[in-house]
Amino acid sequence: MDPTYTGRGLRLFRPRRGGGRVTATPVALWAEESLDTDPVASSWPSLPVSDWRETRDTLQLCTQVVGKVRLANAPLVNHWWNSTLYVTATGLTTSLMPHSLGRSFQIDFDLQEHRLDIVTTSGVATSVALTPRPVADFYAEVMRCLGELGVATPIWPMPVEIEGAIPFTGDLRHAAYDAEQAHRFWLTLVEVDRVFSTFRGRFLGKASPVHLFWGALDLAVTRFSGRPAPPHPGEAPNCGPHVMHEAYSHELSSAGYWPGGDSEGIFYSYAYPEPDGFRDFPVGPAGAAYSDELGEFMLPYELVRTAEAPDRVLLEFLQSTYEAAATCARWDRAALERRT
Q: Which residues pair with 109 in a beta bridge?
């Protein structure tokens, strides 16, 4: 897998557009609310990409196997929200999924005990060990377990959003699993999920859950203006145009955390369609910047992790980049935002 791949969350091309009414909420208002006064930097783990790149790439492919099982069973929800995974007290989950045979089931990554748990509502369950093994072996064992539990789910065994991807069935290349690094990744997601959830709660309009897109292994939260968007012109590897059209059917401001790049991962924020003035809008904190290459604002995870008050720093980034999108695109902010 190419560690420099940047097609995270189906975001490759973002035409620009504006329109609507402008209102404003000072960033400082939200930056001060609902935050602990004690620094919590020690709870944000260090996670250098160089230490766990091989484990990350293998784990991403394993989440794609499980995510495709959810996608095959769960009914379509706006913007493919039926395909995502969620952070839990032990790792990641599909949440409960219906099956065509009349029973329901759930798949959980336990990143404390390092196993994949498959549980059905009929009272039967099994586990798959998360250990160093080829993706092809993991895929085969998961498919076998689903069949034995009576919830067999055929999936298209081709990874998405990855250039030069190897089908799950023949992937002997990706076989790393460092339990400590996988655990640290989950601890990171726990912290990010908490702050993203605080940010999500400030919005009265349509907003996504805080959820993990396995296409690029990024945790994201998205706000919507309520207006339709022009058809998305781009594609990601092994994703047809219909995928983009559903993902970007409505005007949005999206932020997330991606464990990629050359350091410790990044926080990102982008608008679709990108309105005039967005990339030049002043945002915080110091260290945040707009990437012309990626078409989004970026903030290094390390800058948040090492800050005296990480929550405050991350919330400033989320709020100010949202304001860049909502102000430049003239969202009806008075109707969409929760006021203190």
A: 92, 116
Helix (H) / strand (E) element for 106: namely strand 104-110
d(CA 129, CA 138): 9
Q: What is the pLDDT of residue 24?
A: 41
Residue 300 β-bridge partners: 266
Average pLDDT over residues 189-214: 98
Tell me the longest C-alpha to C-alpha distance in the chain: 57
SS (H, E, C) 59-78: HHHHHHHHHHHHHHHCCCCH
Per the structure block, which two tokens stand in for 27?
């960033």
Separation of alpha carbons 248 and 233, rounded Å = 10
Backbone angles phi, psi at 175, to 5 degrees: -145, 15
pLDDT single digits (tens) 31-43: 444 454 444 445 8
Check residue 42 and give its pLDDT. 56
Q: How far is CA 175 from CA 7, 49, 161, 237, 331, in A?
A: 23, 17, 19, 22, 46
Those residues whose C-beta lies under 8 Å from the C-beta of residue 29, and which sit 6 or more positions away, are: 340
Q: How far apart are CA 101 and CA 153, in angstroms?
A: 11
The structure's pTM equals 0.89
What is the average pLDDT value for the chain, to the nearest integer? 90
